[in-house]
Each structure stands twice: as structure tokens, then as C-alpha cells.
């Protein structure tokens, strides 16, 4: 008999929405959680409202869950203060239940590597405040698992791109601009290899971590296509749109388009992602679970088609 307990997804932004769709496609019941009570979710997902920093509210919305996935989004300027509150709430709410917890995270905890590809064995050597807090949280999660306080797996991803993904270095200033023939920005050095994580691949990886007990107790690099340079990515997009992509290099963290001064002031300490090779190795995940990333050309085709429909007004942004 199949497990009818719901899989609970915290957050309804691009990652949470895409993960909800992936879990539904696997036959799971999905309960999505946000603070506003508004979201554009895949058909079949149930939306409930809660403040995830409140353990009591979190315990109520995760009651009876088969697994819980933390896909909450916290703005850069709030991460150092808010991320520890969310973690404490998760550990308090889920610890007594034994419910597996899957957390999606970034690569900022490693810090600059001098271009050496990042693996799960790369030391936590963050130089940024946001990276250091991510490293501390990861260490606390893993320590809690080792103590038996909670069952947890962490899924690491590079820069997101894909449907619904607007605020990204490969998002709202890339695909719409390319479709309109406008300059497309590239941060830092566009001729360095750079890993980009296709959001449906991230969702596939997270759902797998939630289903497979052998995944728990460690961090994993989620499936990612072999790194290309950003200029090569722009070239593939040009082939898909049928018009040249004019790459506009943004060599320093200065405001550009939707990336305003406040955003760039926070992003500056992570700008090394674009000034040295930024390559994520997913071989541990692919060898363990037999799942591989979508080829970059195919992922870009799907994303370009989605933005083309969005530009035509057929798609609204997620709440």
C-alpha cells in the first residue's frame, strides 16, 4: 500500500513551486506552505499558511508529513538574522517526530576556491557573512542528525535558472532581453566556466533526497549540467531565439536592471562567483542515485519557450 502521508514544501517561490510539481508527478500528496496564503501552484497541491519561524505553527502544518522540504526564500539582507530562526524552528518542530527534513542551499558556504571545482569534500571556508552563516547552519544540521535529533539531507545548487525564475543572473535580464534583441548582462568574466542549476533538476534531486533514507545525514550536490562559460550559454540562447545575443559585461557589482543598489550591495560579497571559475561537481549524487542533469541545450530550450510565453502574457509570476 502506498504512503499517503503528505510531502510538505515550505516556500512557494520558484524552487518550492517546481518541487511541488515534481512531487505530484511522483504520486505524492503535496502540502505547500507560505505566509501570504497566496500562490500560483500546480494543480493538486494544497496551500496552507504559516510563519515558519514559529515552531508551533510549523508543527501544525507539518503534522503527519512523510517529509518536509525547506525551500523558503530569505532576502540577502535578512539572511544572517532570519536563517537561524528558521533552522531552530525546524529542529524544534520536527525533532520529536522523526520526519525527514530536506534543505535546499547555495554554494556560498565554501567561499572562493581559486577555480577548483567544488565537491562535497570542499572545506567550508566562506569569506562572506552570508556564506559563514550558511556554513554554521549546515554544521548544526549535520550535528543534529548525528545526535539523532533530526533526520536531514542538504541539497546544494548553483545559480538557478528555468521557468518561474526571474531574480537570477540567468533570469529576467537574460531570456526576455534575448527574445527582444536587447543587451543581455553577464556578471564578472563571461569567459569563465560557470555552473548553472536548472530548477527542474534541483526539484528532482530534492524529491529524491526526501524519498531515499540513504541520502540522509549529509549534504549533496544536486544534478547540474557540465559547466559552460556564460558567453557559451548566451550563444546557445541565440540559436534558440534565432537572433544574436549581445552580451553586456557587468564587471563589478553595480546596479543593473532589476538588480538595484540595495541588492547589489548585498551581492557584492558573493561576486567572486563570477570572477573565478565557478564549477560544481555532482558526481557523488549521480553515481549514488543514477540521476543526471538535463542537457544544457534542452534546459535552455524549455526555459526560453517558457519566457516566450510569459512575454506574451500567458503566464503570471508566482505570488
Automatic annotation (TrEMBL):
Q: Which stretches make up the NAD-dependent epimerase/dehydratase domain? A: 11-215
Domain of life where this protein originates:
Bacteria
Organism, by scientific name, is Streptomyces gossypii
Q: What is this protein called?
A: NAD-dependent epimerase/dehydratase family protein
InterPro entries in the record? Epimerase_deHydtase, NAD(P)-bd_dom_sf
Please report a single Pfam family linked to this protein: Epimerase
